Amino acid sequence: MPAAGYELDPITVEGISRSNPLKAARALAKAAASLRMANAIIKRRAPDAVLGGGGYVAGPVGLIAALRRIPLVLAEADSHLGLTNRALAPRAERVCLAFPLDDRDGPRFRVTGRAVPPTHTDRDAARSRLGLGRDDTVVLVFGGSLGARSINTAAVKAFEDAPYRVLHVAGKRDYEQLTAPNPHYELRDYLTPFGEALVAADIVVARSGGSVFELAQYGLPAVLIPYPHASADHQTTNARWMERAGAATVIRDDELTPERLREAVDAIALDPDRRAAMSAASRQLARPDAARDIAGEVLRAASKAGRGAEAPRP
User: Fold this and answer.
1) Which of 3, 61, 294, 312 has the fewest Cβ atoms within 10 Å of its own Cβ atom?
2) Which of 34, 42, 25, 49 is nearest to 309 (CA)?
3) pLDDT value for 85
4) Whole-number Cα distances in Å, 272 to 79, 275, 276
């Protein structure tokens, strides 16, 4: 945030463990202290509106905003309403949902999609910087900043003799333990801006968290391996959402093998018609105006309370 020119006010808080009573007690103690921190921040900043992005970090600030009657807007990035957003939703002016939710369809809720970074559009320049040929078929493999170990280990074996280029962003945790199997396999620990990897790719192998909206933004067909321990198994829900639309193939993490991964990717990479159809289906799921729509709800909430600028019309 500071690197982007925004001031940052930290608070000390942690998630409440559901399996360790001692850690849960420690988290509750920190939560009480974080309310005092949040109150001091809100009092000093005197905001016209507050946007909560979900997660336990947003809880104390959102609660203080609600108690002080400061307009509160929530953004839910997953395919279920998390604990913090469920608790704060009755006090919010608007809850912006990434996905339609069956039990969240009242006037308080609006499906906006998930906000994603601006789209990189110069495919040739991105490929040049990444050492990829203009006419190469490129498979992008990634699993987040830390990486996904099951995907990392399966990919280097699966694609050791692949007839296409592989750009594998392995994450910092596993990178030193991995070896690129051939000269056409580009192995990196991290890549920023990540949009360059997405615009350079033709197919993606990845987990299925909030990044599914970035895949849709770039119209990318995907082989998705949901993280099996995600809260409420929301990554599986995300992956099936793309699969139902015809934009993805899904492999369970406990069924992932190099052979299964290679078969799934080959079925897309080596079939131009299927790849084009999946790309079109992926692009249909995109919500390119999500950030603007969420920002509009924040401004609208502020103006409704007689605070801040007039909100733009949707």
Assistant:
1) 3
2) 49
3) 94
4) 31, 5, 6
Nearest to 178 by CA among 207, 157, 164, 204: 157
Q: How far apart are CA 27 and CA 11, in angstroms?
A: 13
Type of residue at 275: R
Distance of alpha carbon 34 from alpha carbon 12, whole angstroms: 6
**CB burial string 113-141: b at 16+ within 10 A, e below:** bbbbeeebeebeebbeebebeeeebbbbb
Least confident stretch, 135-139, 210-214, 220-224:
210-214
Q: Do the Cβ atoms of 94 and 293 come closer than 8 Å?
A: no
Tokens of 104: 């969240």
- Which of 177, 202, 213, 222 is CA-nearest to residue 75? 213
In this structure, is the dihedral angle defined by the CA atoms of residues 108, 109, 110 and 115, taken in order, positive or negative? positive
229-251 as b/e, with b when 16 or more CB fall inside 10 Å?
ebeeebbbbbbbbbbeeebbbbb
Query: Largest alpha-carbon pair distance within the chain?
Result: 63
Give per-residue pLDDT as tens, 88-98: 999 999 999 99
